[in-house]
Fold this protein.
Amino acid sequence: MNARFTPGPMTCKVLLACAGIVLGAGARAAEQPVTLAAHFVISMTHVRVGELIWAVSFADTTYLASANGKAAGVFSVLVKGEGSVTTHGTMANGQLTPTSARSDVSDEDGAYDVRMTFDNGDLKHVENHGAPPPKDLVRVLPDYLHNVEDPLSAMLIPYGEKAFAPANCAKTLRIFDGRRRYDLALSYKRIDSVKISGYAGKALVCNVVLHPIAGYKVDSLLVRYLAGKTDLEMWFAPVAGVAVMAPVRALMPTLIGTMDINADEFAERKVAVAPVAPPKPVEVAPLAPPKL
């Protein structure tokens, strides 16, 4: 998934999902290339612990999303890790479908590189390089890897005519990050407002419930603490140029306080495409009159 910022692998993965980029699975293709860039400040009990930078570009029927971040500040001893994630995919028939994803992570499990490819929503291939995962994990069975998405693609929330309709929260995100398989069940909570650089307006707030599936330790105190809790929130705002919602804030309880992942920049820009010049007429010399 994304970089590790919280005290534990599962929390880190949820954080990346929460702060991931949202392009709309049901979004219509952009009329011209669009790029959304955002910067998040990650704080714990009002103390800054890290940052996350992400960007997404999409045009016609394809998208490219990336995120990177690291822990920082006085809590970096507790909140360990840094990393980056990139994903590619296609948009067609009202759906966003990842084709490949890669994450480079360094955290309490060590440094490792995960690469995945997908085929119509199913995991096709996964490679893990670097530090091996711990052995005492719930096994990730093949049946768990159908109809799944990488963390960044999973966060892409589509909408039709109404961006802030409660129905846009009614979904379950089935996520596989290359090592862990989990669901995030979303439901409508309220409409709020945000004012940050690049955006001021309404935000759709969804309640989020974590359901670990596989790839985690059964005796993990952190997983037991987070799983099933109903006080995790994700805030979404619309992206100009496409019918998609992107996250602008996430609130997540942890064992040492509430983690606040808050955007201080949320800027969309259309990428100018140079017009193609019409072909010049071919000048042909007149034929000499035939000799008699």
Notes: Residues 1-29, 73-79, 271-290 have pLDDT under 50 and may be disordered. Helices lie at 9-19, 151-154, 221-226. The chain has one domain: 9-270.
